[in-house]
Amino acid sequence: MKISTKGRYALRMMLDLAMHPEGFVALKDIAERQNISKKYLEQIVPMLNKAELLRTNRGYQGGYMLAKKPSEYTVGEILQVTEGSLSPVACLQYEVNDCPMADTCMTLPVWKGLYRTIQDYLYSITLQDIIDNTVEHGNNFCI
Fold this sequence. Notes:
Blueprint (H helix, E strand, L loop, with lengths): L4 H14 L8 H8 L3 H13 L3 E4 L5 E4 L8 H9 L24 H15 L4 H11 L6
Antiparallel strand pairs: 1-2
Helix pairs in contact: 1-2, 1-3, 1-4
């Protein structure tokens, strides 16, 4: 599994919004602060909107803000929206494993364990955790 630029940028955008909770934030401001193309962010926003992770406001003082508190978003949730499946192998992408080798595959337990570890880890980290860690260690976040 490799996290794409889309997933990394979506996470950076969501963190930027979490760090600027004072109101709706213009996409151009996020793009400037994160050094990401505004056009690229425009491709990510519809996915986040459809998943109801963002609130939007059009027009004067329009922009985007988080729909929930930063502590209510997990990295796994954001990546799931942008990446689709986070499974390390194709046969675990769907709930029903219809691989003809599933019953006899000696490596399937390895992949299931890895998938479970990925899920447990990514769904245990919230946006607030990342912000707190950044503030505590005095670093700018880089994903």
